[in-house]
Amino acid sequence: MAVADRYRSAADGFARRVAGTTDWDSPTPVAQWRARDVVGHLTSWLPALVASGCEVRLDPVPSAEEDPVGAWAGLDAQIRSLLDAPATEEVVFQHEHIGRMPLPQMLDQYFTSDVLFHTWDLARATGQDDRLDEDYLAGALAGMQARAEMIRASGQFGQEQPVPDDASVQERFFAFIGRDPRWTPPARSR
């Protein structure tokens, strides 16, 4: 699948969960995050990373605290435009921790995967369908397991969680990155 198509697939799935969210203050599988914080995470780290490694600048988007739907829509539209523009293929991204690569490759490796993984967080937090592409997750899991020591040292992932022998690929993936794959939101008093 082409980079732009892979992004569109992940972003469309995330956008469906954004559209289906009715309580932006729902807790998520990520401790201390609410549903709006999932959008805030995705819309805040990428613009800074892109600016740190190339001349491309993403326009500011609304705050996810105040307008999570607008924040996601604003960033998503910009990434789609970037990936659809032939000139983006020529943009070289260079970063001390990531290395040197074409900007589309960096977006694919770092952002598309983050969008897909956080789709699960938002879906779980808001009671929506949390099923993700098992083939993509299997590849991601194999790649991450091969770099487990570096991944754990990054501090960006929690301790691997236990899963039963019959766990699905999706459950094994989320357990590997430190999520409880069977997490459900706590009951809220009304």
UniProtKB/TrEMBL annotation:
<dbReference type="InterPro" id="IPR017520">
    <property type="entry name" value="CHP03086"/>
</dbReference>
<dbReference type="InterPro" id="IPR034660">
    <property type="entry name" value="DinB/YfiT-like"/>
</dbReference>
<dbReference type="InterPro" id="IPR017517">
    <property type="entry name" value="Maleyloyr_isom"/>
</dbReference>
<protein>
    <recommendedName>
        <fullName>TIGR03086 family protein</fullName>
    </recommendedName>
</protein>
